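Chapter review: from sequence to fold.
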Amino acid sequence: MAANSRTTARKTTTARPARTPRELAPDVREQDDDVTAAEAQELEATGRHITVDLCGEPVRAVPNGAWPVSAQRKLREGNLDGFMAAVLHEDDYEMYEELDPTLDEFNQFVEDVGELSGEPQGKSRRPSGSSRRTRRR
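The token string follows.
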């Protein structure tokens, strides 16, 4: 007779202590030099910052695939200062405030992070429809 859900013994699991999202998040460490898109993806997996230019000055930022949902929400709401506080290295946020970038410079920063991360921001393309026409009856 084959084992199934009615005939097998149920496993009991012990309760695990709850962990906060901060405990589950990867450790974010400094990065010293510029990297390629492939290296940036590897760094994203290990939770490190990438170096990007903002108004001609190098700043360290989290790769866009590792941006927290709260940071993306701030970006959608237009809270650019809150967004930058969430994605920039804490030591580089003061430089951002001093540089006071224009909207064009901010957009260039987001594009540069996307290129270095290998994942540009924006809407994804929808699947294309069938190339064949359906016959009407």
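Two observations follow directly from the output. The radius of gyration is 22 Å. The longest helix spans residues 103-117.
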